[in-house]
């Protein structure tokens, strides 16, 4: 399985997300984790980049946002909103672990 994290420069959420993924993947030699800096609107459209950070598992977004156009922006994950309705900048550790189990 290939997990790719797409991000824009200066994204405050990419570091914590990558750290969570690295911890979850310690014993998963079957998974390759890469990061890709997205620097243009055309590249965002080509990659299906819907804000930073975007996670792709084997090229597919496991947390799709159908109404969002591709582009260079920050991303929120409404699938992981807290009790106050605030959407975080990346999925919770639990959601990431489930994503890796389902995809693996």
Q: What would a concise description of this structure say?
A:
This protein has 104 residues and is an alpha/beta fold.
Question: What would your notes on this structure say?
Answer:
With 104 residues, the chain is α/β, with parallel strands linked by helices. The chain has a single domain (2-103), classed as Glutaredoxin, CATH 3.40.30. The chain has 3 helices and 5 strands. Strand 1 (2-7), helix 1 (14-24) and strand 2 (32-37) form a beta-alpha-beta unit. The longest helix is centred in the N-terminal third of the chain and has 11 residues, at 14-24. The protein is globular. The model has no long low-confidence stretch (mean pLDDT 90).
Would you spell out the secondary-structure blueprint of this structure?
Elements (H helix, E strand, L loop, with lengths): L1 E6 L6 H11 L7 E6 L3 H7 L2 E3 L1 E4 L13 E4 L18 H11 L1
Parallel strand pairs: 1-2, 3-5
Antiparallel strand pairs: 1-4
